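[job 0412] stage=complex_fold ligand=adenosine-5'-diphosphate status=START
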Amino acid sequence: MSMTTVSMGEALIFRVAIPVPVYSLFDYLAPDNVELDNIKPGMRLEVPFGKAKKIAFLIEISQKSELEVSKLKRVFRILDQKSLLSSKDLQLLMWAANYYHHPLGEVISTAFPVPLRQGKSIVVKTPKSFALSPLGQVTLSTDLQKSPKQKSLLEKFQSSLLNLSETELSDWNINWKSSVNLLIEKRLIEIITPKTVKVEPADSIIRSDALQCNLQQQDAIDRVCGALDRFGVFLLEGVTGSGKTEVYLQIIHAVLARGQQVLVLVPEITLTPQLEDRFRNRFAVSIALFHSKLTDNQRQAGWLSMQQGESSIMLGTRSALFTPLMNPGLIILDEEHDASFKQQEGFRFSARDTAVYRAKLLDIPVLLGSATPSLESLYNVDKQRYQLMHLPERAGKATEPMMQLMDIRNKRIHEGLSDVLVEEIHRTLAKNEQVLLFLNRRGFAPTLICHGCGWVARCKRCDANLVIHFDEQRLRCHHCAQEQKLIRQCAACDSSELTPLGLGTERVEKVVTELFKDKITVRLDRDSTQRKGTLENYLQQINDGEVDIILGTQMLAKGHHFPNVTLVAILDVDSGLFSIDFHAAEKLAQMIVQVSGRAGRAEKPGKVIMQTRQPEHLLLTTLIKDGYRSFAKTALAERQEALLPPFSYQALLRVQAADANTPQLFFQAIIAALKKLDVGRTQILGPVSAPMAKRAGYFRYQLLFQNANRQELHGLLDALIPKISKLKQTNKVRWSLDVDPVDLY
Ligand code: ADP
Ligand code: ZN
Ligand code: ZN
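[job 0412] stage=complex_fold status=DONE, emitting structure tokens
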């Protein structure tokens, strides 16, 4: 191959994307003496931008520019020697920018870990691992009697028989380094340098044996493993405890044996610390992590280790989806219905839908799993776009819990607990079994009201009440950062008769500890688990049987194993029944099934009690009598009737400003612009104020677009966006477009 060198005289244009809120690409002159053979789209560049420097991403090289070439600035330098993104990766990002109508530069930027986004050069520091040397294998640990640390380390290696990575050693004992060095000096263990992913004999990948599967599990495994070489979407529906994770593990094993990598996305890893352990216990390959509790550098290390093929599995949250893979083989999304797979700010992508598109581009399968599949996914099964696989039974010996609606109308209620429920709790505890109480509201009480004059403590910046946090003696807004000391006197009439109204987990904790004095209660919510390691500690205590009553918010609904919990009570199921968002029924049903899934996992049968004042509500009765699938069928029929998604497509234009007037002027201009466009069959609903009309000091309005024809809707958005960017009102508001919104707030 000849090297093309371009001299200063010729116009050679780099068309780049820059992470700024601008939809178009930017043209720059290529750097001097650039060797075009080495230049690939996706490379990071440093460019002058206004008075500053910015990181840009090369999209294409051109001979022409629509701008006057003499006015173009020159690229400062090229940061990458090779593009970190494959052409498929770039194609995916371009598709996503287009589909979600978000500026390409910002989209590409999100795909990179923060240090790379900021232009840091790549330093590949591969994590080391260690293994027994032949001498170490035959040395008796008792020979090291005099140095107990080295002795126990040698025993650790001898019992695991496999490589141990730095991470694993740190988990085992943070002071491992000196002992490892001493054992290396004694030639008992050796450093193993990581190798890139390659086809390996299947049994060298595995660390512990797979479980013996039941028929349905085996069928699911066989179906996906029979289609590993091509695109396909599989939906694995199975209640909690039905053995989905085991199915994932066995399919992953097959993919690893082909020398391919697997991307596993979960809603929130930090809430399910056991999951990582299960993966590490099963596989002897390097596993990368990517989630919000890691540092930027840790995330970058995981990202690069997948990009370079040193790790075979990535376990991550939503934003891990864009991790470049050297040799992709499978994408798994666990709890695919979970709303956290939709990014709610900035680049508002759905990790599920984008994962499906990515799998299609890569021609690999994608596996979606859930106890409560989203209505969209079930609809796609109906349309035969997704293949459904069902695990109807709980794995092992566990049985389904019994669900019961408890009518609490006219019943005596003590701080959220009815007498009958208190009875049930006593009975369960008497058998030495655990109880789980669910209330999806943290704090002591959601409202502080004056008994004298009716004054309510409100947030000054939001349309919301301040929540009482009694333990910390604070009043806090859950929608912005506003907080203040808990007051003792009414701000309006000075009365000291301030009354907490409603229930939060703190309040229930108080009453539970009073009612069950000799029992141990733990509260799991965002407030009680702030400090690192607290959640893990609590989970450990629960599993060790040191806890009798577990009380918490939706944090409890996620994948935990509480084998000794036999009674689950949902204290206030009604609060989910009356929402103006059409997604609410689906979310409530999912939450009920997920929380119920905590009960009776082992051999003890479980019971779920839902306190309600709506015992005849169709959603609740359908769910309990006929199960989630029936509920989903009814709910889908309702959506079809109302032509709501998935029977139509939506996009939500949100606007906010510091005063109430500007958004209205902005919308008037938008409506005028829309009049000049061909809206086709797109319904335009609004503008209306957002359900929370003021938040964090901003007045909020929205306009909803809906169309049963996706192309038509997107065509309209394509035409509208350049117009929005040009409106003179645009600079005075903050606006965003949410394609396929999952939350209409
Ligand atoms: P899910 O992911 O659906 O909640 P898991 O895969 O975590 O289910 O399985 C729940 C429990 O049942 C785990 O403790 C797991 O080890 C066990 N399990 C899964 N499959 C089997 C099986 N085929 N035989 C026995 N136990 C199993
Ligand atoms: Zn008052
Ligand atoms: Zn607020």
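The longest strand covers residues 683-695.
[job 0412] exit 0
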